[in-house]
# Entry
Amino acid sequence: MKILMIADEEQQKELQSTKIEYNAEVVFNNTLLNAVDYKNFNSIFILNESWRKFDFNIAEEKPVFINSVIEPLSQLKLPHYVSRMNAWPGFLQREVWEISSNENQSFENIFASLNRKSIPVKDEPGFVAARVMSMIINEAFYALGEGVSTREEINLAMKSGTNYPAGPFEWTEKIGIKNIYTLLEKLSEKENRYHPAPALKKLFLEKPGIDL
# Structure
């Protein structure tokens, strides 16, 4: 099996930092290829934003996986062989990847060749893990804004009290405040409990294009 991974440098570092030996030939590239070059691959992962410029017809109905955490397939209206996944910073190192598909498909052989597991989830914004993480971060910003404690103390409390590998503000720095805020805004369209905390919104509005 031959798999193409189109990913930026940081995503490639994250994928390769786990030191997993793939059971397939995995080719990394940071930009889209010429149309003819896709014929040699069994599946295609487009983990950066270049999927928005990709002509999905040239994939010839091979499985294509795109990084679309916030926009569901029902909104994107892409071909049936396109699935979405979470390639936000920090999530590619995980052993299990959440996948939303247009059809009830099995990708067990593809992910086994990457020494990963896939779990099908509903085609909704945020999947499961990113939605939960965003809520934890949002609650931390509520606590910060209300003067409950400092960033450092909240990070330490979460790591010591729950055995999390990182605190909520450390996760914010890694994932990027723009990603977190945009997801919460999307989720809050249907459920008020996802409304961004004032302190988070203030920080986002001050530096919307910066990952803090």
In short: The mean pLDDT is 91. The two ends are 39 Å apart (CA to CA). The CA atoms of residues 56 and 79 lie 7 Å apart.
